[in-house]
Design a protein that fits this description.
alpha+beta; Translation Initiation Factor IF3; four-stranded mixed sheet; 2 helices; 4 strands; 37% strand; elongated; disordered N terminus
């Protein structure tokens, strides 16, 4: 699909390259497929809520919540990549996350961007 050489020296190149920029140096956008997104909502369990409440009184990182948010963001991004791949894209440009509270029961994370087909110039 055209990005097989792009890997930046960090292991094998992904089949869907996700970037926060409007373009990728050395590549041109051959086709804009459109918006893609990955969405997930995670609830916090009671133990982490109690721990977070106590920690907020004395300060410091909320490690349990940090771990949950990282896992949630990764899941949303995986879903975005799956959707892009299913639509024939090999890249997602202008990638962003949106994080909101979901009616006090958890955290909603949406990963979104523009799916494209890129080719090496």
């Amino acid at each position: 699909m055209g990005i097989e050489e792009y890997g930046g020296g960090q292991g094998p190149a992904p089949d869907v390259l996700v970037v926060t920029t409007n373009d990728v140096p050395g590549y041109r956008v051959e086709q804009v497929i459109g918006e893609v997104f990955g969405l997930t909502v995670r609830s916090r369990h009671l133990g982490s809520q109690i721990g977070a409440g106590l920690k907020s009184m004395i300060g410091g990182e909320l490690k349990g919540l940090t771990k949950t948010l990282v896992e949630t963001r990764n899941q949303a991004m995986e879903r975005l990549v799956e959707q892009a791949r299913a639509r024939g894209a090999n890249g997602v440009l202008m990638f962003r996350f949106d994080v909101t509270d979901a009616q006090d029961v958890g955290t909603e994370v949406c990963a979104y961007g523009t799916a494209v087909v890129m080719v090496k110039e």
